[in-house]
Amino acid sequence: MSGAGIMLMSEEMPRGSVCSSDDVARVIEELQYTLGEGPSVDAYCFEQPVVEPDLAHAQMSRWPVFTALALEAGARAVFGFPLLIGAVGLGALNLYRDTAGPLSDDQYADALVMTEVAARAVLAMQANAPPGEIAIEFEAGASLQVVVHQASGMIAAQLDVTIAEALIRLRARAFAESRPVTEVAEDVVARRLRFHHDHDPAPFRDQRHDE
Fold first, then answer.
1. Residue 43 and residue 110 in one domain
2. Which end of the chain is more exposed for a tag (fewer CB within 10 A), N or C?
3. What is the pLDDT averaged over residues 86-97?
4. Are residues 184 and 128 part of one domain?
């Protein structure tokens, strides 16, 4: 493998990257977080490994936006493995390679072992955290996108929608502006950007405030 990352997820939505091995892995994690699509997202949702050995010549177009941007970042093959403890899904292990090609049987078996180890480590760390809080180990070394969750809460209040819908709208805005979702979220939290209902057909129109 050329690199790897671990993403926590819940309710079919990425919550943030626990760790990534290099710049390309970080881009892949950020893309999946922003777009809500990719191997880790599918692995978590379907509770089974998802492999794409050749992004440039995929037999099925399951991630139209993610694929183009992941290729641009330098990934040629991607593999997602769900982090499961019994029936409980915690997230996914994301692997990438800078050359196309399938996993060997040994690599596939090793990935399954690693996902079990990672899942148990995540569960053990979070078990010591107070209810409703993130474990200190995650806050210290992870990118859990706390600002995105804060922004989603603000957007939900502004539009009187659910947190899930607010997050979808936030992602759509980030994609439309070709910006990381964390940057748009920072604008919301800093009150430089406000989402609101109006009669404009564009659903993500905003009100900007001069600093």
1. yes
2. C
3. 90
4. no
pTM of the model as a whole: 0.73
| 139: confidence class by pLDDT, cuts 50, 70, 90 | low
Residue 121: domain span: 3-132
Whether 178 and 203 share a structural domain: yes
Do 179 and 91 belong to one domain?
A: no
pLDDT of residue 40: 92
SS (H, E, C) the chain: CCEEEEEEEECCEEEEEEEECCHHHHHHHHHHHHHCCCHHHHHHHHCCCEEECCHHHCCCCCCHHHHHHHHHHCCCEEEEEEEEECCEEEEEEEEEECCCCCCCHHHHHHHHHHHHHHHHHHHHHHHCCCCCCCCHHHHHHCECCHHHHHHHHHHHHHHCCCHHHHHHHHHHHHHHCCCCHHHHHHHHHCCCEEECCCCCCCCCCEEECCC
Indicate whether 153 and 127 sit together in one domain. Answer: no
Q: Are residues 168 and 102 in the same domain?
A: no
Q: Is the pLDDT of residue 53 over 80?
A: yes
